[in-house]
Write a structure and sequence with these properties.
- The complex is a heterodimer of chains A (249) and B (482).
- In chain A, 40% of the residues lie in helices and 29% in strands.
- With 249 residues, chain A is of the alpha/beta class.
- The model of chain A has no long low-confidence stretch (mean pLDDT 92).
- Chain B is of the alpha/beta class.
- Chain B contains 13 helices and 23 strands.
- In chain B, the strands form 3 sheets. In chain B, strands 5, 6, 8, 10, 11, 13, 15, 16, 18, 20 and 22 form an 11-stranded mixed β-sheet that branches. Chain B has a 10-stranded mixed β-sheet with strand order 4-3-7-9-12-14-17-19-21-23. Chain B has a two-stranded antiparallel sheet with strand order 1-2.
- In chain B, strand 3 and strand 4 form a beta hairpin.
- The radius of gyration of chain B is 22 Å and the shape is globular.
- Classes of the chains: A alpha/beta (249), B alpha/beta (482).
């Protein structure tokens, strides 16, 4: 689904990713962990196509397509979804109109007609149940006045609505209380599917208790320095990151 | 959902050139260029006006001659050559029409392009259209239905003939001839406009709508609108404008007067999309309009405007809150792009006790444009417990445009409460990226964000106007982020 080779990226002349390799197969869930400043969020931004991030070397193949040739909105329409660490508020734009615009952009890309109002509302009903998103939140402006947990639930709701091939969750657990963490995780788990892959970026192992990954990778100084099965996350939780740095030094 | 149809609109927004830049080829009965007493006599006699109105015009002309063009605005433009303008043009269409089918096909085509074909208008219940092409009203519909309620909705020329007592009583009563340079000019040379009278206690059952269109090359347009809501009545009035593309500047100096008698309510909505000039600022309409309403006891006037067009916009729809407990509102979205300039806002003059006013202004500046909000809130000595709330927001689309706010507050009564809030923000790259990441193209993302920003005002518009307004915002801001 996603093959990253020797990826180098920088922000304003500061190199952050320094030769990252990663292969995610269809239906797999991979977790990326790592200390602050290791490049986790940069990886998410580079994948999503944020313009401030310059890719200086390497390649990213996304389901047979050269991802780096596509702009951000094209990547999204091809089925790449980013759940933001800090979801953005868009005052005055209702959540549902926003989703409708997104769904229709994707449908247009697939040569389909715009979704009918009936189908759209049915889809909203189905998907909002996944993350217990109330009608009140659906009808409000995008993320405006949402609590931290509500914003994250809204991200997962959007992911469910758009049914991506590849979802990148950027520290989705940050700022979540136990209940919200459970709701968000259950939403993600319900979406696990043989044709859909996940890249879960997190600081803490606790998210991985709920969203159990197939593989865990440790990112340090812009490179994946260690990979392993899900048990690696427990080891990291117990020992911290320093032992890996020492091991790889 | 309030914004059903948004998707359709966004799909339609593709062409970059000014969409309504077409001209209609209809023979015009046109006066020679220039302004003098003879021209005014010509206009008056062509329109078969009573003597008092001719005298009023001539007096206005003499007043205007003694005035000089004001220079206090935050605008730069080439002053119009008043002797190069033709002050009268009427489509040659003398015959009285038995049905809409007899309307000139060219004219029908123009109306179709504007999206207001008469068949459509006839079919769609709820909107009566007084279609003004150049200076003479061409077709008026729904008149009979309105007449049953005693509502008068006609061209100003017709009102002068049919209801001279009302015209004589109220014309110039809200915007006096000598109010300003352009109101004096308008009084001297106005050729037509709309007239509306709602009788006591009548709630007008439909939105009254007038489409203005400047059509004759080199013709200044001097519309004059007079709207009277008698005691306890209600009316919602819509004014929408588009103009054909021109290479020379076109002057538009209209006067709108609203009279809200005791316990009445007037909603006046405008969507203005005149040709703004090309990217270098060449061409485009000068829009110098005087709009004012007077509120008697317990009455209410709401101005809602969406301004996207014109090279230069200079207007301040205002409320004189004369009666106790009267209410004035002003909701505005003003978009400027490329080299456009806008100096717009409102005046709320509180005279009566417990009078209240609300001002919500949303400026959007793009390109190298300059967008100014200028507002006056004046609380006079007798206006005990008057209240005002003003909110002026500016959104910048580029780092080359300008947004300016000039709030004037004068309070002469210690019991008054006046609040003013202002914000300036640049369109968020994070917001745009968020939309992009959901698969939405940049142009559409900007349209969504801007429409969201302006929603508070757009929501005040009647439904179909809100849809048109969203479309205009999107068209006006294409390719404008930087």
């Amino acid at each position: 689904m996603l093959t990253i080779k020797n990826l180098h990226a920088q922000v304003e002349d500061t190199a952050i990713l320094k030769g990252l390799d990663l292969e995610i197969g269809p239906g797999e869930v991979h977790a990326i962990m790592g200390p602050n400043g290791s490049g986790k969020s940069t990886l998410a931004s580079v994948l999503a196509g944020r313009e401030d991030y310059e890719v200086t070397a390497g390649s990213i193949d996304f389901d047979g397509t050269d991802l780096l040739e596509l702009d951000a909105s094209e990547r999204a329409r091809e089925g790449l979804f980013l759940a933001f660490q800090y979801p953005v508020e868009i005052p005055g734009v209702s959540n549902l109109n926003f989703m409708k615009a997104a769904i229709n952009a994707k449908r247009e890309n697939q040569g389909l007609d715009a979704i009918s109002a009936k189908d759209f509302l049915a889809l909203v009903e189905e998907k909002s149940a996944l993350v217990e998103l109330s009608g009140r939140l659906r009808d409000r402006s995008v993320n405006e006045g949402f609590s931290g947990g509500e914003k994250k639930r809204n991200e997962i709701f959007q992911m469910a609505m758009l049914e991506p091939k590849m979802a990148v969750l950027d520290e989705t657990d940050s700022g979540l209380d136990i209940d919200a963490l459970r709701i968000v995780s259950e939403g993600v788990n319900a979406m696990r599917h043989e044709g859909r892959s996940f890249l879960v970026i997190t600081h803490y192992q606790r998210l991985l208790d709920h969203i159990v990954p197939d593989h865990v990778h440790v990112l340090s100084d812009g490179q994946i320095v260690k990979s392993g099965p899900k048990e690696l996350a427990f080891e990291l939780e117990a020992k911290g990151y320093d032992w890996i740095k020492e091991e790889t030094a | 959902m309030a914004y059903e149809g948004e998707d359709k609109i966004l799909e339609e927004v593709t062409g970059k050139a000014y969409e309504f830049g077409f001209t209609t080829d209809i023979d015009s009965d046109k006066a020679p260029a220039g302004l003098n007493e003879n021209i005014i006599r010509l206009i008056s006699s062509k329109k078969n006006e009573p003597e008092w109105l001719l005298e009023w015009r001539l007096k206005a002309f003499r007043t205007w001659e003694d005035m000089t063009e004001p220079e206090w605005s935050h605008l730069q433009y080439e002053k119009p050559d008043f002797q190069a303008i033709s002050y009268y043009a009427a489509p040659k269409q003398k015959k009285v029409l038995a049905s809409m089918d007899e309307v000139d096909p060219e004219l029908r085509k123009t109306m179709d392009k504007l999206g207001i074909s008469l068949e459509e208008q006839k079919r769609l219940s709820g909107v009566a259209v007084d279609f003004v092409m150049d200076s003479v009203s061409v077709a008026t519909s729904f008149k009979d239905k309105l007449a049953d309620l005693g509502i008068i909705f006609c061209s100003m020329s017709e009102a002068v003939q049919e209801h001279p007592e009302l015209v004589k009583k109220y014309i110039g009563s809200v915007v006096p001839v000598r109010d300003n340079y352009y109101s004096a000019l308008n009084a001297a040379v106005f050729t037509d406009g709309s007239f509306c009278y709602i009788p006591k206690g009548v709630k007008c059952p439909m939105e009254l709508s007038t489409y203005f269109r400047i059509n004759e090359s080199g013709t200044g347009q001097f519309e004059r609108t007079l709207l009277i809501a008698d005691e306890g009545s209600y009316v919602s009035y819509l004014e929408g404008c588009t103009a054909p593309q021109r290479d020379e500047n076109q002057l538009h100096a209209a006067v709108v007067e609203l009279v809200a008698l005791d316990d009445s309510e007037i909603k006046y909505s405008t969507v203005q999309n005149w040709y703004p000039g090309d990217e270098k600022g060449k061409g485009g309409v000068y829009n110098f309009v005087t709009k004012r309403g007077i509120c008697h006891a317990r009455s209410k006037i709401s101005w809602t405007q969406v301004e996207t067009g014109s090279a230069v916009t200079w207007k301040y729809p205002s409320c004189v809150l004369k009666g106790d407990d009267s209410v004035g509102e002003f909701y505005s979205v003003a978009v400027t792009n490329n080299m456009q300039q806008a100096d717009t806002g409102t005046k709320m003059i509180h005279l009566g006790k417990r009078t209240r006013s609300t001002i919500i202004s949303k400026g959007i500046s793009a390109g190298k444009s300059q967008n100014s909000y200028r507002g006056l809130v004046q609380i006079m000595p007798n206006a005990d417990h008057a209240r005002n709330f003003s909110q002026c927001d500016s959104l910048l689309m580029t780092d080359r445009c300008g947004a300016h706010t000039f709030p004037y507050i004068e309070t002469k009564n210690p019991t008054a409460q006046v609040e003013h809030e202002a914000t300036t923000s640049k369109i968020g790259e994070d917001q745009i990226f968020y939309c992009l990441q959901r698969g939405i193209e940049e142009e559409q993302a900007i349209s969504l964000i801007v429409n969201g920003y302006a929603k508070e005002v757009l929501n005040k518009l009647p439904m179909e106007f809100a849809v048109e307004a969203q479309k205009l915002l999107a068209i006006s801001l294409e390719g404008s982020v930087g």
